[in-house]
Design brief:
7-stranded mixed sheet, Rossmann fold, alpha/beta, DNA-binding, 15 strands, 4-stranded antiparallel sheet, about 700 residues
Amino acid sequence: MPLSSNLHAAAGAADCFFFDRSRSCRLVCIAQRDGLLPCQKQRGAEEPAPLPSPTRSPPPPTIPLSLVFAPSAAAAAVVRSLLLRSRRRPRALPRIRSVPLFTAEREGQRGSTMVDWLSDSDDSDKFEWESDAEAEPSSAPALRNLDAAGPSTLVRQGSNGWANGEAPPNSLIEGYVGMGFTEEMVVKGIKEIGHNDANALLELLLTYQAIGDDTAVGNYSTSCSIPQSMEDDSDLDSEYWDGDDDADGGEPKSDGCSDEDFLQEMSEKDKKINSLVAMGYPEDEANKAITRCGVDAPLSVLVDSVCASQAAGEYEVITGRCSGLFGGRKKARLMEESKKKRKRCGGGAQRSRPPSDDESMPLPNPMVGFNLPGDMLRTVRRTLPKQAIGPPYFYYENVALAPKGTWNKISRFLHEIEPEFVDSKYMCAAARKRGYIHNLPYENRKDILPPAPKTIFEAFPHYKKWWPSWDHRKQLNCLQTSISSAKLTERIQHALASSSNPPPPSVQKYVMKECKKWNLVWVGKNKVAALDPAEYEYLLGFPRDHTRGPGKTERYKSLGNSFQVDTVAWHLSVLKDMFPNGVSVLSLFTGIGGGEVALHRLGIHMRAVISVEISEVSRRILKGWWDQTQTGTLIEIADVQTLTYDRIASFVDRFGGFDLVIGGSPCNNLAGSNRHHRDGLEGEQSALFFEYFRILDDVKSAMSRM
DNA sequence: CCTAGTCGGATGACAAAA
DNA sequence: TTTTGTCATCCGACTAGG
């Protein structure tokens, strides 16, 4: 089974990924510096239904943990330490021999970080990725040897070429060949690590296969546009980037084939190119920088040269009438960041590299996206990588002001496409700063009619009556998932009643602060109040009473989490001419159906919508709206994690593929208003982004077979 | 058990001041 | 150039009452 490009992009974006191939390559776990991140359960989700056995051919072998990608030595080391720390510790601890992914072409099969499973003497702690029985392989019981050798058996080739000097029985090799591996691959694997540990061998064979597939495709060479993800501020990193000392990122050099040996054989120029490539810069850029600066130039100078070149390149590709649109501002910022980083790291070059996941993506100012209704198309040009071009078209949304590095990471997963950051205050009367990554064209967008009111008074003229002259708000702030307490409005009323008219500046300041924070409007003399759910619906572009039914709290929550329909419709409007017969949509994290309402308001027929939404209340809302307005097929799924490859493939067969994959994954752990668990993309809910990515990848795979 | 109400900081961007 | 201040933000733990 070939690994698709997205998976490799993923390997570049996170530290390490665990894919469960026994369940159609489902993403099981993401390992990051902060910890192992299981991708199995969504809070509040029911247990996933039993999944059908994989039908893809050749059927993947059932194993507890099938593939580990770590894009760097540092990442590999992190994973190893995490596994050591983890209560969910594998029976066999991986010895991670790390070669960054992007060196695949240069180093052939060593392109991916491989994880060699070595037996651990501590067998008591079974590695339980899931509670069900899949942790125990069933399809290859005869191949397993649970009494595998202990940690001291660092595998070495015997004099006869076999690991441990022991030739495997022919039946063993045939067993693996029967599983779909080539004999050559099996022999090589056994020579490499022996055959005592069936798990380890399977891992290695799967890794060989994956690498073989990819190198055959010819992707992920050093000229690949996917830069490597390396995280800042880690000792592991410095260990790694001080490559001359320990190219293995601190891993014991027990196997005698470390990258250090490899590096030592290289010429000075090659060495520098390699260093730059290892930092994530394209090889040709590194080469050019050396040509420009000379082979003797310090690495820091070369890094700056590459940075400047890249920034200039970006400037050429994406320019804007607006200075904030990833133009000169970004260039300047890149240069500034590069300088700052070098300074921070004591002038050393080890830590300088292109924007990594730890760096923030500059937000455009004004936040108007590529263009706005009634506005000329900004001179935005972007070139999508080949694998990102639709169909399927995809549209991903999340909060713009996410923690540092989040959008870099999201973008890296989604073909390095620059997010289109838009504040919905340019489309309606309330702000909503969001980033959208999509592969839709953006010429000839159309506004939906009637256009949304742009100011508070346009939307709610009756509030004019009580609006004090010293409240200068023309628009509202972001509509959130909860509203102010009654006590707060009472306090405000009391403060105003007990002061002069107009109130003194201190009172004005206090009142304005609370009004802005909670989107309060003036409903009487000295009386402010929160917007009601119907007003939320109106401002967000939903039909009246769209969410009516559940309690107010639920309504606020679902509305506060939804799309701003006019904004999304503006982006999706290009689909109307492209799909005159309607679209089939895979809608992830549907919520109350902002995307669907947008398509409907654009007059785009939805032949079919497969909607995935965990909240029963939201599902009910969508179903109610659908039954009133639509004639197509609606299939609602509760848990995104039950949407396996096989289910996706069957939907693809049934509906002739998907025209649009749309969704905004949970932002709970990204939003600034989360005081408790703003854990970033790795947070419990926000990590479901990786499900979006995984499903999009599955859709592409399934559609490529059509 | 469910619903509604109340209350409580952190983060990052930006601008102004030092 | 660095520090400080201001602003905005798809929230969650806890409690009370039904």
